[in-house]
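Researcher: Quick test of sequence recovery. Tokens follow.
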């Protein structure tokens, strides 16, 4: 396993790397026909904008707001502290996470912090959510978030999936590792299943394949 500081040896590797990238990293890699087919698989990118709301907490009584409307580029706004109860959380501010789907290189991906802040303020006003007293923002750009299911993607994925399943001592899972639209709790459950399939005697592929069938 290659790391920033060098290499780490392991008996078994659990990988959540995007399947298309894994194919380009491995030596030897998959057949050329598989690589060419996998080049047609694409991911939706995402800009996460963490917004500090200066004011009483919570900003909203809900943990998440889904915005399936063309009135705003934001797909979801989450308020993390509403998912839990922690007396150590400050009461004079809240942190919101605004998720903005995009494509690498488009106007959202390339937008400055100031442009994103303005976009969020306009979007929140457009859907009549509570006003945000903007303190500051932190932006995180993610390249591989949602697999894009275009017509014919199954054919492009099939050879890559078979190749990954035959990698010795490597198990891929997660949204990017399997090119599936799973949720966080599904990915965590699959991780537990992968760990349970691993023992000192090796990896139980039958147990793992059964687990994959339950989640796919």
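Model:
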């Amino acid at each position: 396993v290659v790391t920033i500081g060098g290499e780490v040896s392991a008996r078994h590797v659990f990988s959540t790397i995007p399947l298309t990238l894994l194919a380009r990293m491995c030596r030897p890699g998959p057949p050329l026909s598989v690589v060419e087919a996998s080049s047609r698989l694409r991911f939706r990118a995402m800009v996460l904008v963490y917004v500090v709301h200066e004011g009483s907490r919570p900003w909203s009584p809900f943990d998440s707001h889904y915005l399936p409307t063309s009135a705003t580029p934001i797909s979801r706004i989450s308020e993390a502290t509403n998912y839990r109860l922690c007396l150590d959380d400050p009461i004079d501010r809240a942190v919101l996470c605004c998720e903005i789907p995009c494509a690498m290189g488009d106007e959202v991906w390339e937008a400055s912090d100031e442009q994103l802040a303005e976009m969020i303020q306009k979007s929140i006003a457009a859907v009549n959510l509570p006003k945000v007293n903007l303190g500051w923002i932190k932006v995180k750009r993610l390249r591989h978030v949602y697999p894009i299911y275009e017509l014919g993607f199954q054919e492009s994925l099939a050879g890559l999936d078979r190749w990954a399943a035959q990698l010795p001592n490597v198990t891929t899972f997660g949204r990017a590792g399997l090119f599936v639209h799973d949720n966080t709790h599904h990915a965590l459950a699959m991780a537990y299943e992968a760990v349970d399939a691993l023992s000192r005697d090796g990896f139980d592929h039958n147990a793992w394949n059964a687990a994959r069938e339950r989640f796919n």
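The mean pLDDT is 89.
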